[in-house]
Write a structure and sequence with these properties.
The chain is of the alpha+beta class and 131 residues long. The protein is 24% helix and 48% strand. It has one domain: Nuclear Transport Factor 2, Chain: A, CATH 3.10.450.50. It has a 6-stranded mixed beta sheet with strand order 2-1-6-5-4-3.
């Protein structure tokens, strides 16, 4: 089996994270995230959020109905060393709206990954609603 490139490793682990979010899979999400994860996102109203409890609230809400598809568009991976990377992209999320029609959400995201004890951990992100 050929060695996986650094960029493809980051793309794969980031897609797994997005799939966990879309599927409401807290166990998979928390496995991929560092316990001291930090974030700026629309839900935090401009405040830096530290730790996992803020995020767990959203996973504990009832799941939405219907399928969800998540796509990273034009991802850019920058290696910051042997064990660190930043990835930025626009995330498109497709789902069914209240009337049953398809709806696509768009978010600009930057995520930082750190390999700790041989395992990639999501340590920080910034997510904005794209205009």
């Amino acid at each position: 089996m050929p060695h996986q490139s650094f960029e493809s490793e980051i793309l794969e682990v980031n897609q797994a994270l997005l799939d966990a979010i879309a599927g409401g899979d807290w166990d998979a999400y928390s496995e991929l995230c560092a316990a001291d994860l930090t974030a700026f996102e629309a839900e935090s109203r401009g405040q830096l959020v530290e730790g996992m409890e803020f995020h767990r609230f959203y996973f504990d809400l009832p799941a939405g109905q219907g399928p969800v598809n998540t796509t990273m568009t034009m991802p850019h991976v920058r290696q910051l060393g042997a064990d660190a990377a930043v990835i930025c992209y626009v995330r498109l999320t497709q789902r069914l709206g209240p009337g049953g029609d398809p709806v696509t959400g768009r978010f600009e995201e930057t995520r930082i990954w750190h390999r700790i004890e041989g395992r990639w951990q999501h340590v920080h992100f910034h997510r904005s609603t794209a205009t």
